[in-house]
C-alpha cells in the first residue's frame, strides 16, 4: 500500500473513533511521536523560563568543605545584604556559591573528592568563571602553591592594602620556584614543608594571597567550623575583580572587633 493510501486509511479509522477509543488509538500508534513532541515542548518551555528568570552572577565563589549543617538561608541573606548595600538589583543579579566540593588533603578517604575539587577549580579558573575561594587556612596553603590565586596587591586599592594588612596571609614565591625545581629534577623523595602563611618575615619572597575573614559576621554563612581560621582568596583570572574589592570591604566591615 502506498503512503498516501495508508494516510487515507488512517484518516478513515480516526473519523470512526470517538472519545476514549480515539485516545487509546492515538496513544497506541502514535505514543512515541506524542512523547517526542511533549519533550520538545518541555525543553522549549524550560529554555524560555530560564531566559526570563535567569539572573546574572555579579560574583562566583567556591566554598570548599561546606556542609549542609550550615543553613542555606544565611547564604541568601549574605547575597541580599551585599546587593542591597551596593544598590544592585536583586531581581536581575545574584552571587553564585559552589558548595559541593571538598578539599581534605590529610584524609586519604577523601582523595577522590580532593582530586575533583582541584579539577573543578582548574577548569573554572581557566574558563574565567570563578572570582573567589573560601576555606580553612591549612587547605588553602596547599592550594596556593598550585598558583590558583592572585597577589591581593594587584586587585585591592592602596587604601584597602593598608587597612587590611593585619589580616593578610602570605605565600612564598621562592617556595614555588623550589617546587618547580623538584618537579623538573623528578626527585620526589625530597621532604618539603609549606611555609607558615602567618610568618611573611620568614619567607624570601612573600606575597599576600589570603585575607582572614574569620571574625566576619557572615563567616558562619560560608564556612561551618568556627574553630578554624577561615580565609578568602581571589582566583586567578577572576572576571569581577572590581566587585571583589566591594565584597571584601563588605565582609571586613562586618568583622567583629
Q: Outline, from the CA principal axes?
A: globular
Query: What is the helical fraction, as a range of percent?
Result: 40-55%
Number of strands: 6
Largest sheet: 6 strands, mixed
Residue fraction in strands: 5-15%
Question: What is the count of helical runs?
Answer: 9
Give me a quick take on this structure.
With 257 residues, the protein is of the alpha/beta class.
Helix/strand layout:
Elements: H1 3-15, H2 19-53, E1 56-63, H3 72-85, E2 93-98, H4 111-126, E3 132-136, H5 137-144, H6 158-164, E4 168-172, H7 173-185, E5 206-212, H8 219-222, E6 230-234, H9 241-253
Parallel strand pairs: 1-2, 1-3
Antiparallel strand pairs: 3-6, 4-5, 5-6
Task: Provide the descriptors you would attach to this structure in a database record.
14% strand; 6 strands
Polypeptide structure, described:
It is a single chain. This protein has 257 residues and is an alpha/beta fold. The chain contains 9 helices and 6 strands; from the N terminus they run H-H-E-H-E-H-E-H-H-E-H-E-H-E-H. It has a 6-stranded mixed sheet. The longest helix is centred in the first third of the chain and has 35 residues, at 19-53.
Amino acid at each position: 500500500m502506498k503512503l498516501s493510501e495508508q494516510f487515507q486509511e488512517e484518516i478513515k479509522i480516526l473519523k470512526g473513533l470517538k472519545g476514549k477509543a480515539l485516545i487509546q488509538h492515538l496513544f497506541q500508534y502514535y505514543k512515541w511521536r506524542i512523547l517526542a513532541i511533549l519533550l520538545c515542548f518541555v525543553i522549549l518551555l524550560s529554555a524560555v523560563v530560564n531566559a526570563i528568570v535567569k539572573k546574572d552572577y555579579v560574583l562566583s565563589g567556591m566554598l570548599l568543605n561546606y556542609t549542609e549543617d550550615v543553613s542555606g538561608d544565611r547564604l541568601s541573606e549574605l547575597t541580599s545584604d551585599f546587593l542591597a548595600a551596593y544598590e544592585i538589583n536583586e531581581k536581575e543579579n545574584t552571587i553564585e556559591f559552589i558548595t559541593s566540593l571538598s578539599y581534605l588533603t590529610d584524609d586519604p578517604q577523601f582523595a577522590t573528592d580532593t582530586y575533583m575539587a582541584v579539577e573543578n577549580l582548574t577548569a573554572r579558573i581557566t574558563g574565567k568563571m570563578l572570582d573567589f575561594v573560601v576555606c580553612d587556612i591549612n587547605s588553602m596553603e596547599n592550594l596556593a602553591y598550585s598558583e590558583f590565586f592572585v597577589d591581593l596587591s594587584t586587585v585591592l586599592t592602596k587604601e584597602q592594602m593598608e587597612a587590611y594588612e593585619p589580616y593578610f596571609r602570605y605565600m612564598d614565591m621562592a617556595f614555588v620556584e623550589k617546587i618547580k625545581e623538584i618537579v623538573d629534577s623528578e626527585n620526589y623523595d625530597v621532604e618539603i614543608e609549606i611555609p607558615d602563611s602567618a610568618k611573611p618575615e620568614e619567607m624570601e619572597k612573600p606575597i599576600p594571597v589570603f585575607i582572614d575573614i574569620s571574625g566576619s559576621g557572615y563567616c558562619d554563612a560560608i564556612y561551618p567550623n568556627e574553630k578554624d581560621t577561615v580565609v578568602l582568596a581571589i582566583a586567578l583570572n577572576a572576571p569581577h575583580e572590581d566587585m571583589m574589592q566591594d565584597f571584601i570591604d563588605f565582609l571586613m566591615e562586618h568583622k567583629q572587633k
